[in-house]
Specification:
3 domains; two-stranded parallel ribbon; two-stranded antiparallel sheet; mainly alpha; about 300 residues
């Protein structure tokens, strides 16, 4: 996938071709694939350029999987394929699909994708507000200060509109609203963390505690070899969810009695603060997962 073109290849029988990344190109690909016996269609995530093509394939009922580009690149390196072009990438994706057989997961619906875009826009607005606020702190020229204050006023207005829109969309959905009320019942979790968990982690309540920890990236991974016992570390996952969970846990270690007690116990056992905080993140996530699964508030789940 690229901004302008779509490169397609097949395996085990090769048949590469290229079409424009346009609605006409999407329709031509769907028409061509519909006449073939397809086991799985593997598409690399490319920052949003793949979304329209994925939507077309989903509407056509075809088995499409969106994969992490890092996994595919590592697969190519393992085969000694270091060169990289769009046509070569298409061939690697075809071989990756045949060798790995990536599992098909439910892809987000249109409403969820829109909500994720709004959530990303909220993060961008916060970054811009922070940058302008820092500039205002050091500006001495009255004209410059007025300019910065005008921009800040506009950014804060747009930020409020985005947040109101997100909250209204959640309230319109009975399923999202129910989950939001369960999440917000946890001491230390505010509206922003609740929004992030709802929109960026729809699997919450549907996975085991091990699976949900791995999805977010707070599961400790072994680094052992022979007699060497390496230090466990977290890796991968969803950075936006992990960042929000970190802030919620930081607050919970002060205001949530259960998490605070667990945090102090780890510190007394000799764990460093960063490790103890990560363990508390995992515990809080596990509790949230069980609450959504059992449809229990914090008070009923932790009497």
């Amino acid at each position: 996938m690229s901004k302008e073109n779509l490169d397609v290849d097949f395996t085990p029988n090769r048949g590469p071709f290229r079409l424009p990344n346009t609605p006409a190109g999407h329709g031509a690909i769907v028409e061509r694939l519909a006449a073939m016996e397809i086991r799985v269609i593997v598409i690399e995530a490319t920052g949003g350029y793949e979304q329209a093509m994925v939507a077309e394939l989903m509407v056509a009922g075809m088995p499409v999987v969106v994969v992490n580009p890092r996994q595919v690149r590592n697969f190519a390196r393992a085969q000694g394929r270091l060169a990289k072009t769009d046509r070569l990438d298409a061939a690697v994706l075809a071989d990756f699909g045949l060798a790995i057989q990536p599992p098909q997961r439910p892809l987000p619906d249109v409403e969820t994708r829109r909500m994720r875009e709004k959530l990303a826009r909220r993060r961008q607005l916060i970054q811009m507000v922070t940058a302008e606020s820092n500039r205002l702190e050091h500006a001495t020229n009255p004209a410059v200060r007025r300019s910065i204050e005008s921009v800040l006023k506009l950014l804060r207005k747009q930020l409020q509109q985005i947040e109101n829109d997100l909250d209204q969309t959640i309230r319109r959905s009975s399923a999202w609203q129910e989950k939001a009320e369960l999440i917000r019942s946890v001491p230390g979790i505010g509206p922003q963390v609740s929004r992030t968990l709802l929109i960026q982690l729809p699997e919450l309540g549907q996975c085991s505690r091990q699976q949900i920890a791995a999805l977010v990236g707070v599961a400790p991974l072994n680094r052992d070899s022979g007699k060497l016992r390496g230090r466990r570390a977290i890796w991968g996952g969803r950075p936006e969810v992990r960042a929000s969970l970190y802030m919620a846990t930081l607050s919970a270690t002060r205001f949530n009695p259960k998490i605070c007690k667990h945090y102090q116990h780890l510190l007394e056992a000799g764990k460093c603060k960063k490790l103890a905080l990560t363990a508390c993140m995992r515990k809080l996530l596990t509790i949230l997962n069980a609450m959504i699964r059992d449809k229990k508030t914090w008070q009923t789940a932790n009497p």
